[in-house]
Fold:
Amino acid sequence: KRNPTRMIITKEEDLRRLQEIGRIVANTLKAMGEALEPGMTTAELDALGRKLLEQEGAQTAPELAYNFPGATCISVNEEVAHGIPGDRRLQPGDLVNIDVSAMKDGFFADTGASFAIPPVPSAIERLCRDGRKAMWTGIRQVGANRRYSDIGNAIGAFARKNRYTLIQNLASHGVGRSLHEYPEEIATWPDPSDRRRMKEGQVFTIEPFLSLGATWAEDAGDGWTLLSSPSRPTVQYEHTLVVTRNGAMVVTLPSS
Structure:
């Protein structure tokens, strides 16, 4: 079902509220990443995320929007997205993706990152580093009246040059007044059919899934979790941003 909601920032107060929830999800993600350690369960990590969001007066967006069984999505190794927090114990060498989205005062923001628990093979260290680079490569394409397809073209060129693949059925999306809204799908891979242009004030995520060989996300059968196909190490990094005439204004940066 398509969501007709469309967030365009036109007022200073709306921008302030978006930046506030952006800061909250960014700080929560940072704290969860720093808390990762072998032996803890994904449910324990999720409980930390819930506590931090609630302390700031924010509500978890996956629960609010989709009745998701957790405050945050935590995906480990073969899981690429929408992993359900539970009794899985984290191990040395695990690749953990944490996706934090929340709502406060009617505004939503969404962020995510992948973390490797030491000891980390050099190929995975490089994948994490390049996953961030892929995201920023896309963010640099943002600006009023530019094509959305510029984002996927730039990320695709980066992936090809560095011999990675991209998951091609998990797209970036509009966010702001709801968790997913117009533009519903923004490809982070080359999509020549997309002729849409960005408008000043639009709010959306950029979240490429960079992989050592996977190209698709398959349903794990629990109604939520998505697995890499073929099963290969995959990372995701995500920011929420506002389109300006001078480029992207990223709102999901943690407090320094």
About this structure: The mean pLDDT is 96. The two ends are 39 Å apart (CA to CA). The CA atoms of residues 11 and 201 lie 10 Å apart. The chain has five helices and 15 strands.
